[in-house]
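Support reply, case 0932

Customer input (verbatim):
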Amino acid sequence: MRKPKLEIRVGDRVIGATLEVTNITVFPDLRDQSGSPCVIASWVVFQTVR
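Our regenerated output:
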């Protein structure tokens, strides 16, 4: 699986952002209105500007 990556070019600059998921927790006993289990996802965003 590849890490999601986004690049935005503004003039001569390139702004890059990479998302890294650190934890996913599924609560099968807790459901939303449509019956899907509740999920919590934690992530870290790394940003570079060139």
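We compared this against your earlier run and they match. Two observations from our side: The CA atoms of residues 18 and 31 lie 30 Å apart. The two ends are 26 Å apart (CA to CA). Please reopen the case if you see a mismatch on your end.
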